[in-house]
Amino acid sequence: MIERLIELSLRNRVLVLILAGALAVVGIWSATRIAVDAIPDLSDTQVVVLVDYPGQAPQVVEDQVTNPLARALLSVPAARDVRGYSMFGVSFLYVLFDDGTDLYWARARVQEQLGTAAGSLPAGAEARLGPDATGVGWIFQYVLVTGRTSPAHPNGFWHDPRKDRWYPAGEDLPADPRVRQRLVRHRVFPENERDRCPISGERLVDPDVDLAELRSLQDWFLRYELSSLEGVAEVAAVGGHRKQYQVTVDPETLLALGLDVATIAGAVRAANLETGGRSIEIGETEYVVRAHGYLGGSAARPEAFLERSRETTRSVVRDLKTVVLGVGPGGSPILLGDIARIEVGPDIRQGIASWNDRGEAIGGIVVMRHGENARATISRVRDRLAELESSLPAGVGLETAYDRSDLIDRSIRTLNRTLFKEMLAVTLVMIVFLLHVRSALVAALVLPSAVMGSIALMHALGINANIMSLGGIAIAVGVMVDCSIVMVENAHRHFANEETARAEGGQATPHAEVIARAAREVGPTLFFSLLVITVSFLPVFLLGEQSGRLFKPLAFTKTFAMAWAALLAVTLTPVLMHYFVKERVLPEAWRSWARTVFIFGLAGLPGLALWLLPPWLPTGWAPWVAAAWAVLVLVLLLPQRFVAEERHLLNRGLEAAYGVCLRAALRFSWPVLLVAVALVALTFWGPFRQLGTEFMPPLEEGDLLYMPTTVEPGLSLTKARELLLQTDRLIHAFPEVASVHGKIGRADTATDPAPLNMIETTIILHRDPRQWRHVPRERFFTDWPGWARRLPAMIWSESRPITQDELIYGFTLPDGTHIPGLDTAVNLPGVANAWTMPIRARIDMLSTGIRTPVGVKLLGPDLETLSRLATDVEQLLQTNEVLGPHITSAYAERTVGGKYLSIDPDREALARHGISIASLHDTISLAIGGATLTETVEGVERYGVNLRYARDWRENLPRLGGVLVAAPTGAQVPLEDLAELRLEPGPPMIRSENARPTAWVYVDFTGIDVGSFVDQARRTVARELVLPEGYSLVWSGQYEYIETARAQFAVAIPLTLLGIMVLLYLATRSWLRVLLVLTTLSFSVIGAIWLVWLLDYNLSVAVLIGIIALLGLDAETSLIMLLYLDRSYDKHRKAGTLRQPGGLLAAIYEGAVLRMRPKTMTVLTTIVGLLPLMFATGAGADTMRRLAAPMVGGLVTSFLMELILYPVIYYLARQWQQRRK
Question: Which of 377, 421, 656, 1180 has the least C-beta neighbours within 10 A?
Answer without folding.
Answer: 656
